[in-house]
Amino acid sequence: SWVVSGLWCVEHEATDGLKAHPEGLLHGVILRVPVSVMEKAGVYRFVLHFYDDYADSYKNHQVKAALDRNQSTVRERLDIWVSTLPDNNFLGKIYWNWIIFAFETVAKIPLVVHPGDTAGQEETYWLGIGRTSIRFRSLSRAQKKRACRRTVIVMGYPSGSGKPGSTAERSLTPEDPALSIVFTNVVDENHPDPADLNAASMSINGYTNTLIHELTHVANDNDNHCSQNVSTCIWRSSINDYFFYNNSKSGIVYAWYNLVSYTWKGSRVQYYSLWHSLDEINEMRRSMRLIPLR
Question: Which of 211, 272, 292, 294 gets the most CB atoms within 10 Å of its CB?
């Protein structure tokens, strides 16, 4: 037999038939305790231990400053591998220091660019209706052991459908990595002045910024493009002149014009960014289970 031993009021965001509320809802919880555990007369007090799935946020949906003790969460990073099967010169066509600076320094997103080439089997992947198919090498068994969540294989390809790049997110795992492609011929066709003496270096600017755009698809599950459609924003659906030119006014080599600022480790920092705003950076960070920058 059972007895009702108490009526407790707890702050609880209910999910079974009740609507969630950012400040919680008060309702009663009836505890049933078998008589066999209460052999002696007196007052019995019970300690309640609740479990829920709020690992990284409070029940009012605010981000926790730190996880509960002994708790852990799955860390993610951009794990970048290069397949040179379609373009043997692709490694030399990218300013890899730009890639690292954009994600690690500006967006504070963990990133690893693996040197060398993928060494797995040759595969063919069709990008979809009206698009081309691509050939690439997957990761070898040894490379898969070194890979991490958010695995992406990047490559250059000499054909396309008018857009400078394309990304197939797939499962983002070492076994089924995302594929990010830079259509180098499309970037070249959009070159503002092919006769420019700096055309070669400007093309590398375009290839690199196109790749950063495609890697943003991998980091951001929502795939939102620059919502305000600002001309200086390189995180856009179509290529523009800012993909090619350096920002000489700021004295930096990156072709980025948007200033973002936030507090990092107690200090206020400011960077030129290819993303239009801090909100777009935070969309990537939320997707990768990182605390937003403020």
Answer: 211
Residue 219 to residue 79: CA distance in whole angstroms:
10
Q: What is the pLDDT of residues 37-68, one digit of tens each?
A: 777 788 777 776 655 555 555 555 554 444 44
Calculate the alpha carbon distances from 75 to 98, 286, 287 in Å.
Answer: 23, 12, 11
- pLDDT tens digits, one per residue of 16-37: 444 555 555 566 667 677 777 7
Characterise 223 by phi-psi region: left (phi > 0), alpha (psi -120 to 50), beta (else).
Answer: left
- Measured between alpha carbons, how far is 65 from 81 in angstroms, rounded to an integer? 33
DSSP 232-264: T-SSSSS--GGGT---GGGT-SS---EEEEEEE
* Claim: this prediction has a pTM higher than 0.85: no
Q: In the structure encoding, which two tokens stand for residue 88, read together?
A: 């043997």
